[in-house]
Design a protein that fits this description.
Elements (H helix, E strand, L loop, with lengths): L2 H22 L1 H6 L1 H9 L9 H18 L4 E2 L10 H15 L3 E5 L8 E6 L1 H8 L3 H5 L7
Antiparallel strand pairs: 1-3, 2-3
Helix pairs in contact: 4-5
Length: 145
């Protein structure tokens, strides 16, 4: 895949994530309109990462779920929240993996931003790890984890 295509995909998912955030907080925006801008100001910017950095983080999340399968992996609020760029990046990658069918998410509180609480590997996620060369083809990195 070309870098321009990857950047377009990255921008698409970033926009999609923001739209989901707004839709999931729809009642909040209209019940407290003056607080809405303050609410969105607290969201950290998404880190600009290389394709390899993106893949390394997604591989890390998948392997963590694989290690505890068939149990759910806990989303530590210190590592999965909207207020620091690294933690927001984890949320972004986790929702990407969920939308791709590799993990199943459970959501915490219905108020505020979409906050994952737990995630578990799906059969598609196990296959991408276990089938020879599939993991490296789907999430390539220069030096494997």
């Amino acid at each position: 895949m070309e870098n321009s295509t990857l950047l377009e995909n990255y921008n698409y998912y970033e926009k999609l994530l923001l739209e989901f955030c707004i839709v999931s907080t729809y009642p909040y925006f209209f019940s407290n309109f003056h607080g809405a801008s303050r609410y969105m100001e607290n969201v950290a910017p998404l880190l600009k990462r290389t394709y390899e950095e993106i893949n390394r983080n997604r591989r890390r999340l998948l392997l963590a779920a694989y290690d505890v399968y068939p149990e759910y992996m806990y989303c530590d609020p210190d590592q999965f929240h909207w207020y620091e760029s690294d933690a927001r990046t984890n949320i972004f990658d986790l929702y990407y993996l969920s939308d791709s069918g590799y993990v199943h998410l459970t959501r915490g509180s219905p108020e505020g931003h979409r906050q994952p609480e737990f995630y578990m590997l799906t059969p598609a996620g196990a296959d991408v790890i276990e089938v020879p060369d599939k993991f490296d083809n789907r999430f390539p990195v220069a030096n494997n984890l």
